[in-house]
Amino acid sequence: MRRCLAGIGHFPPFFLFATTHITMRIALTLKPGLLAAALLLGACNDRVKDTHPQRWVSQRQAAFKQLTKALEPMGLVARERQDYNKAEFQSQALELQELSGKPWAYFTPDSNYPPTRAKPSVWQDAAGFKQAQDSYQARVAQLAKVAGSADVPAIRSAVDAVEKSCKACHDQFRNER
Description:
By secondary structure, the chain is an all-alpha fold. Helix content is 66%, strand content 0%. It has 2 domains: 1-45; 56-173, Cytochrome c/b562 (Four Helix Bundle (Hemerythrin (Met), subunit A), Up-down Bundle), CATH 1.20.120.
């Protein structure tokens, strides 16, 4: 180890100590810093786990994600970012219609706990929440009805109505993050 790699001779013992000392000092300085950064990033995670035995919140979030996944490709067609394909669009609209009734069963009286983003008005104004659900499902049914018509303006209008129904419900019944 003490031989010079360039053939100059031996390294003085001080040089070996200095390089080893500097390397160790850098390592000791970086490791706590990396550890602190990892802990801080972990502490910044505001995601609360759903610990309820039935996991109502997780189940309804998963159902809403399925709805979003089904609606997104139709939104691309409505905004003319993707070509209209009758068979695909009809299939997507029918899938959305089948999924449209799924999340509501997970809004049980005992499901208002963290990590929910639902406002208390979901339970306090049950009739209003039910009306929002019915409005959404009616708009989805209308979208499914026009999906195979190839009438792009009607399809665009129906997709827009579904999206507006989602937003209206979110504005009234969902908290921001």
